[in-house]
Request: fold
Amino acid sequence: METGWPRELTVLLPAHRPAVLREAILQALDGGRTAHQLVERIQRRWWTHGYARALAEGQLASAVGVAVALVRPSADCPDPMCEDGVTLHLGNGCPKCEQRRTDRRRGHASEPREKGPAPQWWECEGQGCTAAGHGPRPAGGLCWQCQERVEAAAAQTAVQRVSATLAAEAEATEDAARLRQTIRWARMLDQAHVEHAERSRTAQEQAEAQRQAEADAEQVRILRQQLLREYPELAAYAQGQT
Reply:
């Protein structure tokens, strides 16, 4: 197929053939044409459709768009064997195209169609993209591939934003859990200190009571000995009490 492009057009095409051009070639091949027949189609349309003159006059707006128009199947005739008004396997004029031209000359087309603005070629506004289209320009000025990339990037950004939000919420939840655990430990330590202080106070009180009891017993013993020294006659009574 590369040998079929006019040399003047080849120098204007990007080195890396855009997807829209590759798809047009594959569609033409799927339509039942051989590569040789497509080359003949390109060379014929280059002259008969006025592209050579447009290039000479500096009016060739889009090299990719022209390349697509040169190779794409014709949409004017429903007969798949029609090749720009000629029946391919017979080599004579297409009856459907001739009838349509006759109807137009008579002023009543067989299938009246509402006339609108002629489709225009447009080029994708995506950065580094060389795709082109024929017909209404997309609202965003992007081909479907660039539009998909933009939507995918927007979706990825949304996912990253949601992930960041979830991560922040998870971190806040972990911080709250750590704070609650710290408070519980502080309360447990305070309770342990209180219980230790209670036990310490009780032990001290018991020891003090024991010391007091021993001191009282010692005092009683001293008084008893003193009484026995002063009143020996009470010794027998004290022994009987014992």
